[in-house]
Amino acid sequence: MNRRLWLLVLPFLGTLIVPLYNRNDPMLWGFPFFYWYLFAWIPLASLLTFAVYRSLRK
Amino acid sequence: MSGTVHWTAWAVFAFFFALVTVLGFTAARWKKADLDHLHEWGLGGRRFGTLITWFLLGGDLYTAYTVIAVPALVYGAGAMGFFAMPYTIIAYPFVFAVMPRLWNVCRRHDWLTLGDFAQGRYDSHWLALAVALTGVLATMPYIALQLVGMQVVFEAMGFGGVRQGAEIALAAAFVVLAVYTYTSGLRAPALIAFVKDAMIYIFVIAAVVVIPIKLGGYGAIFSAADTAFKAKGSGGILLNAGQALPFATLALGSAFALFLYPHAVTGTLAASSGNAIRRNAIILPAYSVALGLIALLGYMAIAANVPAKGTAIVPALIGQSFPEWFAGFCYAAIALGALVPAAIMSIGAANLVTRNIWRPYVNRTMTPKQESTVAKTTSLVVKFGALAFVVFLPLQYAIDLQLLGGIWMLQVFPTIVFGLYTRWFRSSGLLAGWAAGMALGTWLSASVGMKPVFALPGIGGVYIGLIALAANIALAALLTLIANARGFLRTGDATQAADYEDAVTTNS
Q1: B349 class by beta-carbon count within 10 Å (0-12 exposed, 13-18 middle, 19+ buried)
Q2: Is A23 on the interface with B (CB under 8 A)?
Q3: A53 touches B: beta carbon within 8 Å
Q4: Which residues on B lie below 8 Å from A43 (Cβ)?
Q5: DSSP bridge partners of B48
Q6: In total, how many domains does chain B have?
Q7: Cβ contacts of B373 within 8 Å, gap of 6 or more
Q8: Which side of chain A, N or C, has fewer Cβ within a 10 Å radius?
């Protein structure tokens, strides 16, 4: 088992530990932190998955 | 709205419906093969590459009901309704790690369903039956809710004075869907998904650009929602102290359950390689962005003061924000959004019934042709069952059963997901754990009035599916330990460790 697979745990930690992001500030383009933080995790999780995919192919 | 008929909207809808109907029938000749074989009819011959799988799974998982119900939940409850976001964010890393193993072992043994895997891995037709029944039970109300998604849109377009116009339109649309699913199998929704997904993206992009401009920007939308929740005294644009745990556990449990549903499994196993699935785990999150934006429609509906409630808010918001022709386009996008998942769900359920109920218990020696006939017929029965459900029974039944369906689906997690990594658990333990999880989950949910969350003393609100899963795993482990200690014989296992890994020679 490739050790980089553990990178895939990060999206779970980042989005399931709710106190990390359950607040208004800092706002971005009118979005409270809660919302833009979750939106930001979508490409971030995708990039992490891509990184793991690359490492598996080598 | 019921008095007026929006002819332009109906005309736009009729055009796109006709287009996908033609596609549905021509799909039988796409990637031509003998559709009298179940792996061709029910799995598209496992020939869908990365791009087709992306459209197929995206069209399959983000359903018409999602587009209607998620904003309705956000409209009523606020931030809690956004559990769908962490849910879809964590679902794909899970898919990346787990689903290629399932694809590999199923490809190697020519298995079409999770029931087939349970049968082969544990040599237990009872465990396979449990997996199949759970899938079919969870899927039926889900199909019914797709019909609800269509119905809501039809009502927004209006029927004039025609009595039961929505039921008649639904029945007509579903008959057409049923016939081309029967003839073309999984190829039909795969081809239609291209049109459906493109339309949904156009609708979402237009909505999240145009509507906020009219409402004074996102800052104004969030503050209008905040004010409305404070005036109402419940809900809010942030989670309150007691909601964090329900939010996180709902997201986690839903993510674990998602790829156990027959429609998700069917879409995944139809991929052409393990790497096509891995690449999809990287690119499917594009749909999660659309989902998050769709959820925000709930707040936009608050800020726009739409004259509607519940599931009617999205059509109402569309109706008052766009010119009629584009509203018709959006309605068509949502209604067609019901067809792709409804088709794949009925195919997934049909595969389970054929392979894991009909074959072991009714006719052990089916020819490939008989097998595909049983599956095609089942897909019709399942769809018309769902139609009857929506037409004759209260809507709340379908909603309650869909909620229970998620809890039930999670109870096959140990058999399937643990089973992809280890044969330590015994089939008898897994079967008992499944039964206990099903019973406990149903009972807990009924005891709190068909809600998904149960307040555990000293811990807080936790998603019932996960509570039942914990009991399920504990019982399966306990019975396995007891059986090991007593030295009972183990059931067989048709798989080997290498079956789960990518084949060394293929590099696609």
Answers
A1: buried
A2: yes
A3: yes
A4: 285
A5: B271
A6: 1
A7: none
A8: C
In a domain, B414, yes or no: no
pLDDT tens digits in sequence order for chain B, 508 residues long: 445 788 888 888 888 888 888 888 888 778 777 777 888 888 888 888 888 888 888 888 888 888 888 899 899 889 999 999 999 999 999 999 999 999 999 999 999 999 999 999 999 999 999 999 999 999 988 888 888 888 888 888 887 666 677 778 888 888 888 888 888 888 888 888 888 888 989 999 999 999 999 898 999 999 999 999 999 888 889 999 899 999 999 999 999 999 999 999 999 999 999 899 999 989 999 899 989 999 999 999 999 988 888 888 999 999 889 988 899 889 988 988 888 898 899 999 999 999 999 988 988 888 888 888 888 899 889 888 888 888 888 878 778 888 899 999 999 999 999 999 999 999 999 999 999 999 999 999 999 988 899 998 988 999 999 999 999 999 999 999 999 888 888 888 888 888 898 876 544 4
Question: How far is B199 from B333, CA to CA, in rounded Å?
Answer: 5
Predicted TM-score (pTM) of this structure = 0.89
User: Using the beta-carbon criterion (under 8 Å), do B248 and A29 form an inter-chain contact?
Assistant: no
Three-state DSSP class for B206? helix
Q: How far apart are alpha carbons A10 and B93 in whole angstroms? A: 9
Residue B505: Cβ-neighbour burial (10 angstroms; 0-12, 13-18, 19+): exposed
Distance CA B111, CA B120 (A): 9
Q: Is A19 on the interface with B (CB under 8 A)?
A: yes
Q: Is B344 on the interface with A (CB under 8 A)?
A: no
B281 shares contact with chain A (CB less than 8 Å): yes
C-alpha to C-alpha distance for B104 and B38, rounded to whole angstroms: 18
Closest residue in A to B245 (Cα) is: A18
Query: b vs e for B296-327, b when ≥16 Cβ sit within 10 Å of the residue's Cβ?
Result: bbbbbbbbbebebeebbbbbbbbbbbbeeebb
Give residue B163's domain range: 7-394
B506: tokens are: 């293929």
B221 in reach of chain A (CB within 8 A): yes
Which CATH number is B228's domain given? 1.20.1730.10
Q: Provide the shortest C-alpha distance from residue A9 to chain B (in Å).
A: 8
Q: Cα separation of B348 and B341, whole Å?
A: 10
Q: Quote the DSSP letter at residue B418.
A: G
DSSP run (H or E) holding B483 = helix B464-486
Per-residue tokens: B29: 């000749």
* Token code pair at residue B157: 């377009």
Q: Is residue B271 part of a domain?
A: yes
For residue B354 the two structure tokens come to 């054929």
**B400 in any annotated domain:** no
Q: Do B289 and A42 touch (CB under 8 A)?
A: yes
Facing residue for B281 by CB, picked from A5, A19, A49: A49
Place of tokens 């290629």: B100
Give the nearest chain B residue to A20 (CA atoms). B244
